[in-house]
């Protein structure tokens, strides 16, 4: 049985989550808290497997709590009102989230991800998200989730990305290839537009490594990789690369 706690200070959101958790087999709600001290006491006492946590609480935020815990809960699902900076920051850390009001289908999908995941949420992921939230700008690293692990890599080390259905392959400066279990579209929305460019349905490139263009149909990177340019993206790409 997975022990669950709710860290939230809005009664409507608490009640909503209570109902949804109660419908899930294998998950037991052990309590809720709405302040920093209450949250620290509850989490330390229960040692939950899963925490639903609002990012912004009265008088504190989620990271004020998480940074004070000796042991991070295995699974954390942030709950937030729509906020482009918060959502972007959570994605950079490869952490999970739900938007208020919580959609029942999205809740079930989040629970299913908890059932299927084995890795612990890491302090590095939380630190990445916290930093992005505070600065309200893209951090210099990104977390890449794959089966059983999450790797954190510098954005500057990404030469290009290739989409492969539900996966994205990252080709790095070191020559290594890292594969993440998210589609290319997910990462396109996160990578800084000033540095990264979608050239094709299956490719995003780091413009720092562009060497030349061939017949306006192919981008060649500095190590000789040939990246196709789709016809419908050609003009935008040329405007970016030829100045």
Give the tags.
alpha/beta; 243 residues; 5-stranded antiparallel beta sheet
Q: Helix count?
A: 8
Strand order of the largest sheet: 2-1-3-6-7
Number of strands: 17
Beta strand %:
25-35%
Cα(first) to Cα(last) distance is 60 Å
Summarize the structure.
With 243 residues, the protein is α/β, with parallel strands linked by helices. The chain has helices at 11-22, 36-46, 62-66, 84-92, 104-116, 123-135, 184-188, 234-241; strands spanning 2-7, 27-33, 50-54, 56-57, 60-61, 75-80, 96-99, 141-146, 149-154, 158-164, 167-172, 177-180, 196-200, 203-206, 210-214, 218-221, 226-228. Helix 4 packs antiparallel against helix 6 (123-135).
Structure, described:
- With 243 residues, the chain is α/β, with parallel strands linked by helices.
- The protein has 8 helices and 17 strands.
- The protein has helices spanning 11-22, 36-46, 62-66, 84-92, 104-116, 123-135, 184-188, 234-241; strands spanning 2-7, 27-33, 50-54, 56-57, 60-61, 75-80, 96-99, 141-146, 149-154, 158-164, 167-172, 177-180, 196-200, 203-206, 210-214, 218-221, 226-228.
- The strands form 5 sheets. A 5-stranded parallel beta sheet has the order 2-1-3-6-7, sandwiched between helices. A 5-stranded antiparallel beta sheet has the order 12-11-10-14-13. It has a 3-stranded antiparallel beta sheet with strand order 15-16-17, with no helix packed on it.
- Strand 13 (196-200) and strand 14 form a beta hairpin.
- Helix 4 runs antiparallel to helix 6.
- The longest helix has 13 residues, at 104-116.
- It is elongated.
């Amino acid at each position: 049985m997975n022990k669950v706690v709710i860290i939230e200070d809005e009664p409507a959101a608490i009640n909503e989550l209570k109902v949804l958790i109660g419908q899930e087999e294998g998950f037991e709600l052990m309590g809720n808290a709405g302040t920093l001290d209450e949250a620290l006491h509850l989490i330390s006492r229960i040692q939950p497997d899963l925490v639903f946590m609002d990012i912004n609480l009265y008088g504190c935020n989620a990271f004020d709590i998480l940074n004070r815990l000796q042991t991070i809960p295995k699974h954390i699902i942030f709950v937030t009102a729509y906020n482009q900076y918060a959502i972007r920051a959570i994605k950079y850390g490869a952490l999970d989230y739900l938007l208020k009001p919580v959609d029942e289908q999205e809740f079930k999908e989040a629970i299913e991800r908890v059932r299927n995941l084995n890795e612990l949420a890491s302090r590095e992921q939380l630190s990445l998200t916290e930093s992005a939230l505070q600065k309200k700008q893209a951090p210099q690293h990104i977390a890449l989730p794959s089966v059983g692990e999450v790797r954190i890599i510098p954005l500057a080390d990404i030469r290009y990305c290739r989409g492969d259905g539900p996966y994205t392959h990252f080709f790095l400066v070191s020559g290594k290839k890292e594969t993440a279990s998210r589609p290319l579209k997910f990462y396109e929305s996160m990578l800084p537009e000033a540095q990264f460019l979608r050239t094709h349905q299956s490719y995003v490139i780091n413009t720092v490594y562009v060497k030349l263009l061939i017949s306006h149909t192919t981008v060649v990177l500095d190590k000789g990789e040939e990246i196709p340019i789709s016809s419908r993206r050609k003009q935008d790409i040329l405007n970016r690369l030829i100045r």
